[in-house]
Amino acid sequence: MKRALHNVAAFLGVVILLAPLAQKAEAQNAIWSLVLTNPNQTVVAGTSGTVVYSGTITNLDSTNVLNLSGDSFSTGTWDPSLSVTEDPAFFNFLLNTGSLNPGDSYSGALLDVTYTSSTPATAMNNPYAGTFTISTDGNPNDQTQNFTLNVKPNASTPEASSFWGLAGLVTVCGCIGLRRQRRRIA
């Protein structure tokens, strides 16, 4: 019995001595979040422009500064007419500030996808999917969010099925009108 009490006392002593070290190590691992506010965007084929993906980076830690060291994106196999770049506003934030104090956040543009009038609507990888990653200076780990760009066909060109459906409707209406006119004459 004495030996069991001795073991329990020794265990509690070790826990009491190591608890402050565990708290300090935990405090160095800042908690943060990355959220894209508009991760799935759609454009129309035959047009050109730039789609801006915005989001919020929040330092959820109440004691530690979050140091951001950069960002990256991966797009897999995209059409060559598409290009992805870091948004200038986010670039300036990383260059000039690059950190978030406890409880602070950055909200704004993060990355831009530029498309041209030759970007195909029916590409094999449509919608185009990518990932956006923000890196820190160590712990905590990097965070990644998915984003997509869907290129829809131009609506001004009717599909063949829509055209033939409309042509059939006009033909039926014309036949009904012709039949009514013949009944009035007879």
TrEMBL record:
Transmembrane segments: 161-178
Signal peptide stretch: 1-27
Keyword annotations of the record: Membrane, Signal, Transmembrane, Transmembrane helix
Protein name, as recorded: PEP-CTERM protein-sorting domain
Organism this protein belongs to: Chthonomonas calidirosea (strain DSM 23976 / ICMP 18418 / T49)
Taxonomic placement: Bacteria, Bacillati, Armatimonadota, Chthonomonadia, Chthonomonadales
